[in-house]
Predict the 3D structure of the following.
Amino acid sequence: MPELLAERALVGHEIASRVRIEIDGRGDIVGVARDAAEAGGEPVRGLVLPGMPNLHGHAFQRAMAGLAERLEPGEASFWTWRDVMYRFLARLTPDDVRAIAAQVQVEMLEAGYTSLGEFHYLHHAPGGRPYDEPAAMSAAILDARRTSGIGLTLLPVLYTSGGFGGAPPAEGQRRFLHDLDGFGRLLAWTADATRDDPDLAFGIAPHSLRAVTDDELVQAVALLDALDPAAPVHIHVAEQAREVRDCLAWCGRRPVEHLLDVAEVGPRWCLIHATHMDEEETVRLARSAAVAGLCPTTEANLGDGLFNLPEFLSAGGRFGIGSDSHVGVSPIEELRWLEYGQRLGALRRLVAADERQPHTGARLWRAALEGGAQALGRPVGRIAPGARADLVVIDDDLPALAAARGEAVLDALVFSGNQNPVRRVMVGGRWRVADGRHAAREVVGEAYQRVVRRLV
Amino acid sequence: MPELLAERALVGHEIASRVRIEIDGRGDIVGVARDAAEAGGEPVRGLVLPGMPNLHGHAFQRAMAGLAERLEPGEASFWTWRDVMYRFLARLTPDDVRAIAAQVQVEMLEAGYTSLGEFHYLHHAPGGRPYDEPAAMSAAILDARRTSGIGLTLLPVLYTSGGFGGAPPAEGQRRFLHDLDGFGRLLAWTADATRDDPDLAFGIAPHSLRAVTDDELVQAVALLDALDPAAPVHIHVAEQAREVRDCLAWCGRRPVEHLLDVAEVGPRWCLIHATHMDEEETVRLARSAAVAGLCPTTEANLGDGLFNLPEFLSAGGRFGIGSDSHVGVSPIEELRWLEYGQRLGALRRLVAADERQPHTGARLWRAALEGGAQALGRPVGRIAPGARADLVVIDDDLPALAAARGEAVLDALVFSGNQNPVRRVMVGGRWRVADGRHAAREVVGEAYQRVVRRLV
């Protein structure tokens, strides 16, 4: 039975010293003891944190980071970015997606993410014909995960329409489409493929209110219920101001309002973005106990806008973070700019902190651990018996962190400097990153470069 | 005569191939040739960029990064942060400042900054008594620079008042104060100490309209004119909304408006922040040819607000970047979030790009090179004969940059991922960073840790 003896570790809300962490052969934590006196166990220098869940990503988009920053005639918006993205993905094969997914997963692990929600919508061959093996793209994602070792919740996407109310899909969306029967088969395949591996899980992702009808949304959840009534449901919602206007024009209600009306949104749900909510939507979403899936670097890159964090937290709302388009792949930068965006909006400091949790960095880190774990439907995000042994070792001896004591080290982690302090990373009891480098970094990086050099 | 043969280099507005860079014994570039055919010269793999000027920083604040993120009773603002900062600096000695300055300068070089404007206001012993050597703190900054090798424009600060119109200074400000005679002596010392070293320069920094009267501002510039009528003048202005209200209450004009009325603001001037400007101020500042000194990570950390970049650029405005309080020390993150903040404000993409310079990352990088060099009053920021040999070598073979070609590599540099791609850094013809590490990283880091551990 592997056993670690951590110099310091985040246990519950506290940075504890000399923490013994017992891990069973399956990769679960089975014992945690603070102030461990005796020797024994592998000594781990530094600060051990629960690995951060990355609750939202589209793997293939990693390869177009930086390629959509050139102004074409006209104004640049989310929608012109989406056109670039559709052109980019038009040529991708399952082999390409496997290579890109492995690269971004390796980057995630080196940055301190140990689990991922893959919101997977690129299903079919160019033109929209299913592959001979219809789940070939899903299989590519799972193959990548075998190389990287990241924990994964695979969320096959239902996409049927090109706009609110069942508008016909556009040409660029044909690789995403299923009817409910086809989606049901993909979902069954996904459930099967993720069964029996404690580092894998599944759920569904009706893409957005733009891409499924209300009926399809309800039926997709029913398909999932038949397999696992607790498995997660993710959906993009209210990312863009235009989306809110279009939704109002279609049904007279705002997107989050409409979603909360037509679906039984509860703790298994994760609403990605939820950027544009009025006060009532904000409070209703918070009270639903669903998770808001915030993706600050992507939401900034795409000019989406700022989430209403203060009111959402006041109402008891839960959130986690996602790297989404992977223009940034760092939980530290993601949380830093979640808070900084709020400060720029409110013209004050320490927006996420409150009297009970006065350390801003610590509060953000813990909230994202809890919300991320809930959204991924897996026992991660904490160092406690019953949780997976997903651990990140921070070098808290770095100059940037040297001045901080206790919880303040999490403030320094988020708000002091730009060097990656992650030294070692364990997923499900197995070390994947040592001395800041994933074991497969070179091989995966070379395969990735071959793909992107061919694509551009 | 040292000679480099760069695989790729940013020459003018273009990424050129096989660039021969000749450097004389003084550290100046004396020759640049593209498509160099013959062998000879030290081969440099990767992409060579002009080093980025960091036009604004307060070295000692590096050591409190992350320590002011804890909520105290009441609302957290710039002003409560300033109280924490005053308490923090109360105990610093010149030895402390030397160690902290060396640390932050090493971090800057490793991140790709090759020159710095040190806006230096911590002058005297605790309580406000001058040191036996009155310029002891300035000397500490210059000592640090001897260790790090960064190019430095030392800007001694004139600070006489605690608020607009000559209000008396507060207790926490006593270490900053000079009368004009004392300031004149410090300025003469600074001019002397920076003479004859081509990597050093000097200017002045009247702290802000809160800290000097209009008369003192004009007289400080006259003192500088007597030494060098082209040397730079830096001033904090319009950082906080409250500052604008206080200024209006005092003189009936907004801070930038007032400054432009009372001083002959021109190309030698650098207005730090200039966050809160109305349309007329924005256009007047742009037309003055002064540089706006933007510090996006600090301005976000302090909840200052967003600079009006689109109108400023439309009016031909010049800007550079500074890491200011050093909560972030990376030109990449600084430029990324300069643009991202704009996108979040305007709810659109590619705000800094225009028809003539459509690549957002390239445009931001080049503008910050030019504006930074102007603000620091030194021949840096370009790879051209007559400029200092301040060079940064980027590993453009990294997966994150592999897909980009030509100018798009600067888009990828700014908008793709979080790994530091800086491999080698040269200042004034001398390599200071190799394989991503400054030669003095260990020694400087250990000295820094001893200081901060004593302080907290």
